[in-house]
Amino acid sequence: MLKSAQHKPEKIRTYKASATKATKQNSEEQKPPHIRVGVGVLVRNPKQRNHIFDGIRKGSHGSGTLALPGGHLEFGETWEQCAEREILEETDLKIQNISFAHVTNDLMETEKKHYITIFMMCDCCDENAFPTNLEPHKCDEGWKSFSWGDLVRISKQDGKLALFSPLMHFVENKPERVLHCLNNLC
């Protein structure tokens, strides 16, 4: 009769909250990093439907890079609700025809952050709309309009302007549905 080897389970790390500040700080340093959900929104420029609005990030990770308007998904919110809320908060634009575009897995090692970024596409309700910079502390130079070709060129150059890493991953992925829509085919 063969004796089976006893399997000892691996020790599982636990993270306990503590009442003292020093212990709390040590506990926080031991916590595993968490993954956040970001929503980036491709808002088509109603005057140039093959262009989307982007701005330069300021005061947060990715500062100085070109990014889409967007933000964090809040508890209980749908992706569409998040897109609508973030666009109104950041640009004062009312949007419609909100739909899923793409998703990227974005590990930002330098910043010690990890995001799943959901990209949504939409149109402005007003055909004469242009975004207002309602958060100048987060968007450096206001909102500008860029074509897909502009984003591809920016992604390939080592120049003054770079793409925020989720947007860079998005451009590298070349989602067919998005390219189709930005070429005025939907």
Fold and architecture overview:
- This protein is an alpha+beta fold and 186 residues long.
- The protein has one domain: Nucleoside Triphosphate Pyrophosphohydrolase, CATH 3.90.79.
- Helices cover 26% and strands 33% of the residues.
- The protein has helices at residues 21-30, 79-91, 148-156, 165-173, 176-182, and strands at 35-45, 48-57, 66-67, 70-72, 95-108, 113-124, 139-147.
Oligomer: single chain
Shape: globular
Report the average pLDDT across residues: 85
How many domain modules? 1
User: Portion of residues in helices?
Assistant: 25-40%
**SS strand fraction:** 25-35%
CATH class: Alpha Beta
Tell me the number of strands: 7
Total helix count? 5
Which spans of ≥5 residues are poorly predicted at pLDDT below 50? 1-24
CATH architecture: Alpha-Beta Complex
Structural class: alpha+beta
Nearest-angstrom radius of gyration? 21 Å
Main sheet makeup: 7 strands, mixed
What distance lies between the first and last C-alpha atoms, to the nearest angstrom? Answer: 70 Å
CATH homologous superfamily grouping: Nucleoside Triphosphate Pyrophosphohydrolase
| Topology as a string of helices (H) and strands (E) | HEEEEHEEEHHH
Q: Examine the coordinates and then state which fold CATH places here, giving the name of the CATH topology.
A: Nucleoside Triphosphate Pyrophosphohydrolase
